[in-house]
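re: ur question from yesterday

yeah so i grabbed the chain u mentioned. its 333 aa long if i counted rite. heres the sequnce exactly as i have it in my notes:
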Amino acid sequence: MASTTAASAATAEARPRRARKPKKLGQFQGRDRTVFLIMVTIPTILHVGLVWVPTLASIILSFTDWKGIRFSDLNWVGFENYDQIFTVFDKMFFQALINNTVLLVFLFIGPTIFGMFLAYLLDKNIRGTRVYQSVFYTPVVLSLAVVGFMWQSVIYSTENGLATELFGGGEPIDWIGNQDFLIPFSDNYGISKNFIAILVAIAWRHTGYIMVLYLAGLKSVDNSLKEAASLDGCNEWQSFRHVVFPTLKPINVVISVITVIEALRAFDIIFVLNTPRKTEVLSILTTNNLLGEGGGNVGRGSAYATILFLLCLGFVIWYVTNHYRRTQEGAES
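ran it thru and got these structure tokens back, copy pasting raw so excuse formatting
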């Protein structure tokens, strides 16, 4: 009996013991999980409630004739608002669309290129670089409404504005009220002189913003790349074109999206300047319809807002797709 017990014990010792599997530790435990859920849930609720709910409500209201006073007056009209925009109010809509397009092209050709040029010069660490950066960036920290008031009262004042004194030849000039087409496309459409004046005010602010973004990008460029290009015989322009500029591709994508969104949502400066005729953009038409006297036409205003949203959404999708593709290529390599 004793020998049998000893043999069983020896067999048990010889049998390999199963290693206990360690308990899987979750990424968050206890209080950390609660804090994480709170930090995710609250911003999500705020984002959905303040952004997507109003957006979806605007899309739905664009198919109604609601005046914004009583819900009992809300009637479903289908595509009537969109039909009116493209037929009855076509002159206003297409002129606003032209202005938004002109603003977009202008921001790419003017402030973007000039901001890049300023950033390239300031990256050279010339004397007084910090002072120049502060001077060019100051308009960016100002409110768009303040910028509008400054240009209206200081620069574009009809009698004694700075632009009037410099270019008026002693005669008053109505910079904001001149509705004549500088570049006519037809009898009803074109680029008006007062809209050109507004473009200058917008560029004054936008240039500093672009300058800061490109300056940050240039600071991240490896100096060894520039030195290698110089040793290969590249001049300043060739070095920038073939070495520096390609490394700024992420910055270029961000600036492209920002510029497009800025052009489509332009509102403040034009509104502060009392929205002179032939300077309307899509955001101005949206506001004018929503806030009409005695209750605006919320349905038509929502239709304008929906069109503007779809235009913005196209560029946002392009940006997200481009960013995802670049991330995937980086992960694969």
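noticed a couple things. The chain is about 70% helix and 0% strand. also The mean pLDDT is 83.
anyway ttyl
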